[in-house]
Write a structure and sequence with these properties.
It is a single chain. Helix content is 37%, strand content 21%. By secondary structure, it is of the alpha/beta class. The strands form six sheets. It has a nine-stranded mixed sheet with strand order 19-27-25-24-20-21-22-28-29, with helices on both faces. Strands 11, 12, 13, 14, 16, 17, 18 and 23 form an eight-stranded mixed sheet that branches. Helix 19 packs across helix 22. The radius of gyration is 28 Å and the shape is globular. The model is unreliable at 235-244, 685-693 and 697-727 (pLDDT under 50).
Length: 727
Amino acid sequence: MNGNRESEIFINRELSWLEFNRRVLDLSREKTVPLGEKLNFAKIYCSNLDEFFMIRVGSLYDQTLLKNEYRENKTGMTPQQQLSAIMPKVAELQGHCDKNVEKIFRKLWGYGLEKTHFENLGKERENFWKKYFLRELFPVLSPQIVDRRHPFPFLRDREIYVGALIKEGKNEDALFGLIPISSHLERLITFSDGEVISYALVEELVLHFAEVAFGKANVLEKCLFRITRNADLSVEEGMFDQDIDYRSMMSELLKRRRKLAAVRLQFFGTPPPSIHSLLLEKLVLPSKQSFVQTSPLELSFLGTLADRLKSIGGPDMFYPVARPLLPPAGYSLHRDVLRQDVLIYYPYHSYRPFIQLLNEAAADPDVISIKMTLYRVATESKVISALIDAAENGKEVVTIVELRARFDEQNNIDWSRQLEKAGCTVIYGFSDYKIHSKLTLITRKRGKKYEYISQVGTGNYNERTSELYTDLAYLTSNQEIGEEVAAVFNNLALGRLTEHVNQLIVAPLRFKTVLLEEIREEIQYTRAGNEGRVILKCNSISDKEIIETLSEASIAGVPVDMIVRGVCCLQAGLEGLTENIRVRSLVGRYLEHARIYAFGQAERLRIYIASGDFLTRNTERRVEVGIRIDDADLKKTLSDILDMQLRDTVNASLMREGNTYEKIKVGKDERFDSQMQMYPYLQAELASLAKPVHTEKETGTAPSENGEECIPRRSFFRKFLARLFRR
């Protein structure tokens, strides 16, 4: 690689992420997206941005406090330079968000949902809202005044406040008054007025009647504001004490999270200068990290409006219903895996067969143990229930619970207690590495022989997100793979990393090295005059060594197609550096979460699925597990899935120069939605089977165990996926 131009191929991670969130925001104004879904995409954009400030900006803020100046290893930017580049981008995006939300409000009005604007109330409405305020809100509000006897209070993370300058009695100096809008208050207030449903936000109502809340004080100026605090906590310092209770430490850290430094200040409307400067001073924030917006300070209420829209809108207000398909009655995933390997593709397949597999294992007298890694699970988890049943039935149940799963810490703490209470062995993982792998191992003993059923997946054991995220799960009864999975679990229990594996790839020791070897093999193959090929589908890529190796592949003439949903720190299309690399992002109805890595073509095809992306944290700081898929039919299936996504013209945006993305524009007849096209292909395949197609709504319950063998020679899932894209 040309050392003088090496830096050209890199994009700053934070700026790349902001471009990803722009693509999410764009769906809230996309003409082809139904109105109800636009509400949800705007809500997701806002939630994403909150988390970005809490984690990514919070981390950069911490780095600015270090004595030694840290530079990002690809672009060479300091933390301060990154913060300076981030804030104008955020301000620009906020402007787009304000316009999108205003358009959404106008469209909702056309369906009989009218937002209340308190600055334009008539006399009758004014009286109505004042009575409501006095009856429902005034008794539970807690106005505060900051003076010499009452110091400036701690402002809670992501809560909304009314700020006011007030005068009391004959005091010449104005005082600062606060009214917290507690998150316990019902934020969205609705009432029906004939054919129109009016809705109002509680913070705007309290702002309007702030004078009443402060009593006799004279309110000079007032505004709404909200702060976001750093939530990037490190637990490493607590791990040095080997006698520490890890779960108690995590609980304490969660309490500390609420009191960390402010990283963003938002105002609804232009704030009074005196309040603006006071808050910046008290929060120790630079002015560039404060933002003025015309849309509400937080958009989670749009989800409630979307629910209301379902009751009054037509069928075109939301995406058509698409439920996961169930296999024919009598199907048993357990029996199927004993015959051959199985590939399940969520959300197109139901999660029920996997739950059924766990329940059968929990009751099977031949099953002696179930082992599973748990990163994020549902709040009401059938997976956990099955594990508890297994433990109560005398099985050895070992769970590797990652308490540091961001924002799921408390949920995991609660579940770990229940698992331990039921008699499960709960292991909390390493001090230096998060355990992000998605592994299950069911061990049966028949006589003196042990038999394994192994599952290696790309997604969490979470029934709820399996309906929203696209993920793959590979199940096998292959003895060699079972022994490798067993070795990984044993190493995790002993706090050791795994290096010596054959079909598995296990980070951090034997994950990136394998994938780099595969890329380099394609480089050598192409340099020898042959046609190499690399296709990578992942959520994000930032690993410097992988990016440099992909550039080497491009220079050697290897065609590289990358399907990267989120962060991509590689700039595609640079002449002489990355001109043979094409990057596309798929953002649509489902969150693309599956990772598929393919190298070579035809009989040379080597293909992997994995829990880990190409972020440095995945390749070097986490325990990730993937597997090479050797079965010819399953390889064909995965290859066809990649081909389908490379032909997508509905959800795809192509990377252009300068970290920009352009939506693919085609005629109506050329539109191809890789996500929705899965369903007709699946239905056509299932229609050819002897048994009828069932959806979850039609069956209502999981398939019965009392039935004939529905597919005697081929796996149900494997068969229809193997034929899925045949032309």
